[in-house]
Amino acid sequence: TRCSVGSVRCVQETGKEVRYPIIMSTEEKEIGRQIAFIFRQQVCGFDLLRAKGKSYVCDVNGWSFVKGNPKYYSDSAYEIVRMILTCLLYTSPSPRDLSTTRMPSSA
Questions:
Q1: Digit-coded pLDDT (tens) for 66-91
Q2: Which neighbouring-strand residues pair with 45?
Q3: Contact call for residues 55 and 28 (beta carbons, < 8 A)
Q4: Which of 45, 55, 60, 87 has the fewest C-beta atoms under 10 angstroms from its C-beta?
């Protein structure tokens, strides 16, 4: 699966959408690959928010036949939450690491 085309969407005063190409980071391309794999799509669209050097998925765009399909939205939400929780599990410090008081090794 290839994912390398990105764009910034701007809406003009007339309401017309204009898209400008952007260069996606390696991380953003990997996000796209994972979304396409999880949803079993060869072509997919997703919206990213970029903030403080990080990219966050805020929407996964499906095909028109899924609009109004509660199961699709439920399954999509489940997969995105699963991905986020898995990431947090492997990147968050353990409560033990956050402790400021420790028993002396001689105790």
A1: 566 677 778 778 888 888 888 888 77
A2: 61
A3: yes
A4: 87
